[in-house]
Amino acid sequence: MSVEKNTRKLDEGVVRDFSSRMSYSSYLQLPKLLSAQQPVSQPEHHDEMLFIIQHQTTELWLKLVLHELRSTAAWLRADDLGSALKGIARVKHIQKTLTEQWSVLATLTPTEYSQFRGFLGHASGFQSSQYRAVEFILGNKNATMLSVFESDPEAHAMLEHLLNAPSIYDEFLAYLARQGFDVPGEVLERDVTRAHEFTPALVPLFKHIYENAVDNWGAYEACEELVDLEDNFQLWRFRHLRTVQRTIGMKTGTGGSSGAAFLQKALELTFFPELFAVRTEIGQ
C-alpha cells in the first residue's frame, strides 16, 4: 500500500472501539502513571518535570531489577543455573539503561536545579528503598539503613526480609558447594545479615574454576556474569557521583547525607571481592 499526500491510511482491521475491550492505555494504567508527575515548586519550575521523571523511571527499572534478582536467587536455590544466568543478563541490560539515564539529568544546570531544590525539603534519592534492596540482595547489607525507613512499614519490612535472606552471592556459593566445589564451611555458615567481606579462602576455589574453565564452564560463565554485574553497578555509582558533583558540587544532600562525599565512599564497596582478587592469582 503506497502512501499518498504523506498520509498513511488506517488498516481496515485496526480495532477502534474500546468501550468493552482492554486498550493499551488501560492495560498500562496510563492515566494513573502519567498523572503521577506532580511538581511542588511555586511557581512551577520548567526543569522539575525532568527531575521527577528521571527518578520515577529509575524506580521502575529498579523494580524490574529486584524482580529479576529475586527470581535469580530462587533459580540458584533450585540449581537452575541457566535460568539464573538469563536473569542476570537481563539485569545487566537494565543497568546500562540506568547508567545512560544520568546523561539526561546532567543537562540540568546548577542554576536551574537551585531554583526548585529548596522545595524538595528532605526528600532524597538516599531514601530509595528499592535501591537499598538491590544493594542488600547483591550483598552490601547494612542494618543501620533500616532506620531511614521506620516511617514506611512496607519498605522497612521488605528491607528487613532481604537483610535476613541470603544474597545472590551467598546463593551462588551454596550452589557451587552442592555441585561438589570446595567452598569453605565458614562461608556457607556465615551471618547473612552482615555484608560479605573478602574471604581469602575463596580465592583458590575461583582460581581452580578459571584455570579449568572448559571442565567447569557453567561456574566459569556465572563468575564472569557476576563480575559484569558489579562492574555495571560501579559505573552507575560513578555516574551518579559525577552528576551530583556537576549539579550541586559539594553541598550537603537534601536527605542530610554529605552528598558527593557520601557517594564517593560507595565506590569502595564491593559485592564479589574474590572474583576480582583471583585475577591477580591466575597464571601464577
Describe the model:
The chain has 284 residues and is an all-alpha fold. 58% of the residues lie in helices and 0% in strands. It contains 13 helices and no strands. Helix 11 packs antiparallel against helix 12. The protein is globular, with a radius of gyration of 23 Å. The model has no long low-confidence stretch (mean pLDDT 94).
What order do the SSEs take from the amino end to the carboxyl end, as H and E?
A: HHHHHHHHHHHHH
How much strand? under 5%
Q: How many helix segments?
A: 13
Give the N-terminus to C-terminus distance in angstroms: 66 Å
Judging from the principal axes of the Cα atoms, what is the shape?
Answer: globular
Helicity, in percent? Answer: 55-70%
The count of β-strands is 0
Segments where pLDDT lies below 50 for 5+ residues? none
Average pLDDT metric: 94
Radius of gyration: 23 Å
Question: Quick recap of the structure?
Answer:
With 284 residues, this protein is an all-alpha fold. 58% of the residues lie in helices and 0% in strands.
